[in-house]
Design goal:
Layout: H1 2-14, H2 19-28, E1 32-39, E2 50-57, E3 63-70, E4 78-80
Antiparallel strand pairs: 1-2, 2-3, 3-4
Length: 81
């Protein structure tokens, strides 16, 4: 039973990421080698539906880790480090 509940929670949280929005926002800011790491719990505000974790290389060649926060309608993505 615990395994079933854990699987349901994982599937629900996996649905709260948006790889496309994250990649679009990061590429627009000059990031490369983008890897989506999944849902980042508590990384964004309550107004954000998607909490997409990532690692990427910034314009200085440094690897950074953060979260792209975005909403469903009429809200742009925000990059948080």
């Amino acid at each position: 039973m615990k395994t079933t509940i854990a699987m349901v929670v994982i599937l629900v949280l996996a649905g709260c990421t948006s790889k496309q929005d994250a990649e679009r926002a990061l590429k627009a800011q000059g990031f490369n080698d983008i890897k989506v790491t999944g849902y980042d719990f508590l990384a964004c505000s309550s107004d954000d539906f998607y909490h997409t974790g990532f690692t990427a290389t910034n314009t200085n060649g440094k690897i950074v880790r953060g979260t792209v926060c975005s909403g469903i309608l009429f809200k742009n993505a925000t990059i948080r480090f």
